Amino acid sequence: MAAIDESGASGESEKGFDERDASECHDEDFERQATQRIRKGRGSVSNTASRYLPTRSVAVDDGWENNWYLGDEPDPVRTRFYPDRTKHLITRNKSPDIPFAHSINAFKGCEHGCIYCFARPTHAFLDLSPGLDFETRLFFKTDVRAHLHKELARKGYRCSTLAMGTNTDPYQPLEKRKRVTREVLETLLPLRHPISIVTKSALILRDLDLLEEFARQQLVSVHVSVTTLDNALKTKLEPRTAAPAARLRTIEALNAAGVPTGAMLAPIIPFINDNELEDMASACADAGARALGYILLRLPLEVSPLFQEWLQAHYPLKAERVMAAVRSTRGGRDYKSGWHKRMVGEGEIADLLRKRFHAAVRRVGLEGADMPELRTDLFVSPQELDKAQMELF
Q1: Does the pTM exceed 0.90?
Q2: Which CATH class is domain 22-388?
């Protein structure tokens, strides 16, 4: 398969998929498959085709192969990697409820396999499935240094924090091999450009040498995403992510090294992990998190049917109860994308979760705590850096 061209399928502004109601995707092509097959190490149960393809196929078990109903596991799906023909590395965001204007997504797709990931629908722009394809057919950005220098040198560029991890995780397993995120950091550090990172991977500690220098100049902040303290639930919900204990150790190690690090309790899912909200807040605070945040489960477009398949496969007895609670926080729908409401929802359950979160934050002594503001006044453009380097000769 040839590399796929940059399509502008950004997860930050989410225009093109997040502003539509998820119920629009509930046609016959998105119905749950009758044969729900749990694959070890994968989050999605199915691999429904892109909504943009004119024809689609649905897998049906005919009884001739893979006696999975007698206990055989489905065939494993191999992860494949492709270079992305990157045209633009920096994505611009205009969403009024997101605290950054620019971001970088090192990868398209994510091997972590989090079933709830709101970025899954972006794979449809590549004519691939938001299901298993999103977890197994991954694209990595190319010519990172050249693109960054070109885009940061543009006339009129105004320095603001570049966010990473807002769409797919910059430290997913592919980063260990391709080192795209590492190259972004190595390029930005001499330019003294601020950056913020969200991750659920302990791999970020590999780059502690760079992050410490960013921190010394007040140019970096990190949020570690914590979804559960239960490793068994983690394995079902986000199969290829770091264990909960490893994430807490990561928070501790980053803060010990002087890298300001907070925790994001996300997503909170009614009747799945909301019972852990207070314990997660306490554990993150004990690990040294400087600030806490939370996000309610979001189910835009294909994420809703994929999540419902996952519920039927792992928690069939309470699947209806979970979805009823989710819909109660979204005005009776699977999802509503209104600004300033999509992250926290509305209604009695959403209000209760918000009150519980704020009470938990008060108990752990982090009420009013926030991450330090990053500096933008130190930024040196690539032209200025080149000029300064030439003057050394």
Answers
A1: no
A2: alpha beta
